[in-house]
Here is the input.
Amino acid sequence: MSVFLQFLFSGLTIGAVYAMVGLGFNIIYNATSIINLAQGEFVVIGGLLMWLFSESMKLPFLISALLAILFTGLIGLLMERLTIRPVKKKDLLLMIMITIAVSIVLRGLLMFKFGKDPYTYNPFTEGDPINIYGAYIQQQTLWVIGITSLCIILMYLFFNKTMLGKAMKACAVDPTAARITGINVERMVMISFVMSAMMGAVAGIAVTPITLMEYDRGPMLAVKGFCAAIMGGLGRGRGSVIGGFIIGILESLTAGYIHSGAKDAVALIIMLIILFFRPAGIFGSKTIIDLRRF
Amino acid sequence: MQITNRRIFLAFFTLVLVFPFFLEGSYALSIATFAGINSLIAIGLCILMGYAGQVSLGQAGFYGIGAYVSAILSINFGLPVVLSFFMAAAASAISAVVLAIPALRLKGHYLAVATLGFGEIIYVIINEWGPGGPSGFGDIPKFNLFGYVFNTPLSYYFLIWITLMLVMAFSINLINSRFGRALRSMHDSEIASNAMGVDVPTLKIKVFVLSAVYAAFGGAFYAHYVTFISPSSFSLFQSVLVLMMVVVGGITSLWGAIAGAIIITLLPEILREFKEYDILVYGLILISSLLFFNKGLVPIIIERLKKGYKGT
Amino acid sequence: MILQVNDITKTFGGLVALEEISFGVHKGSIKALIGPNGAGKTTLLNIISGIYPPDKGAVSFNDRSINGLSPSIIAGMGISRTFQHVELFANMTVLENIMVGRHVRTKAGLLSCGFRLPSARSEERAIRTFSEEILHYIGLSHRRDEKASSLPIGEERILEIGRALATEPTLLLLDEPASGLNEVETIELSILIKRLRDEKALTIILVEHDMRLVMDISDEIVVLDFGKKIAEGAPAEIQNNKLVIDAYLGEDDL
Here is the structure.
């Protein structure tokens, strides 16, 4: 039992990251119908910048975190400005390749700056792990889960209670109609990139003390985050959160009970099965898409 | 083949035949050989993406299947290399069918990520359960045919490039035929293509299989050339490299695929001093070719030439 | 009867698009399908050409049920069509568009095409000759090597008909062929459609909003309104039908 719980906790930790990446996919997808395959790099950038500011430059914790989030947001902004907006004819295939190219450039830059070594820094709070029925849960794990929950709540409030959030939702449903009602669609697209980059950064900052972070983690994170996103049905926030946790837990159980090398295959196989048999996601039907959407 | 195509083909073939005599040393020959192997995979992806309009981010998977199956069969089961080649192609074709049947309902992003997932699964499998695991294995026999072993760089160069030219002739014929028109029509309008009697689902499977077989042959040629393979050659990055070759050269041109393959293969040689940071340079090249000349090199050159003719 | 539609019902997520539609089409006739927007005309064409199956009911072609067959098989049986929103192969030339229409009547496979076997070569020549003839027939020979996307709308619609002809259909479904055409082009189109019936002995189902064209060329008319058939008969009868006039009230076509 305690072993099982242990696996469950580590599954929840990594699942929270997948959920955040999945959410990031959804934010951009909802505003632009683009799948941003560079989403994983945002997480890596968040983690590595946090190390840079807090460990290398010795800045205070909160300032470092704030800077890391802002800088990652800036990268999201630059990505949109330099590589998404200039493309006149947004051909699907072209957009996929562009986001791949951006992810390669970002990885290259990360390696240039940080090299190939993994980085880590101290957990947010010092203290002994908490014992729950014989399983030990690190305090940082609680931080990860807490921060993820906070992000989810903030997202919910943003999309449902603020004018800006509602405008972004409108762009997703019908960009032309949104434009007619006076919404600046280009601006919404830009904001969506900045937001999902910052979301990735938050996930990276929170999880790095547990999982360490190196420059080439991005693609796998992107694939698994995408898996979470389609599990809940692309474009539906709540679904991708649940999807992220499910994948994280299954992965951790596979690594624990079956074979550690098989854990990546598990997420991929789940993804293929969902794509092939339930491409609309496994939660609910299409008619309640709007209820599911944040 | 049409007249112009035939002329270009013959000119290029001649170039291929005389080219090695202007090269110095076996190192340059081996680069040329790698360029040929990459061209083979790129042509397959070009037909799949540029003509049939289907995305694949998993070509490294088929490439890996080709290399591993052929190598394992010839080492562990003592199969003649030629036979193991065709078994590798068959294995790759079968996995393409298995992937394509459910995947062909998918479009765009979904198809892209499904094929990417497929490629990654193959990578995980060979990394975990392949001979030698992550560090790979060696002692793969050199390619041989009717008792002749292709063990000099020059002989292997000719083996690859002559095979490539045959594949190229086959592909050009295909594109300019009933089959090729069906592919292109499916790209432009699936619904109309279907209504005109093109069996779109079956056609998609066929073209997936075709590209998988090209990639598998590439993989098998690679394995029996370098005689040592490890999973790192078949990672997601390899799929992206193949994608780059096709995009840089021009996605709607078979010659573009070869041009792209040559450029991308030469790149690390040209960028020797960047060695560690080549990934950054690759990314910058890919993104600038996507943003500034997304038609690709060869179509742009052809356009310029046509304009030039009209000008005089 | 070359085509018989029996009790066809089709719903989309609770919305009834077609409700128990039945009618027959005489061989060699032009049957028009009219009705206000959203009446279900295109849905009916899509069901006949196999794009989606009906929820209930049956379509039989030459006394054979074609329910549940794929569009490509139905094309092979001799039903071809055009599209309301032009669905040409935009990146292919005018001639190539027509050559795709020959796909269903030819059979060279992947290998024989790739190796250019003699059978594939002679077939290719036959495809080319046949397609050139069609191009001549529809009067687009001068556009032969231009990209389909470069044609004006009038010629696009004609090319779609030519492409459909290349499949050698016995039944041709035309979905709003006059939409977007000017008066002269519409007259040319009506001449072409009549020639298809008279010279090529084709049966034609015509979905169209241009009432002058419909009344001018059709032998029989079926009127749909909100998924229901409200009238069927010769043009003169339809013009005086109370129900039809009511359905169109507010539209100034009639």
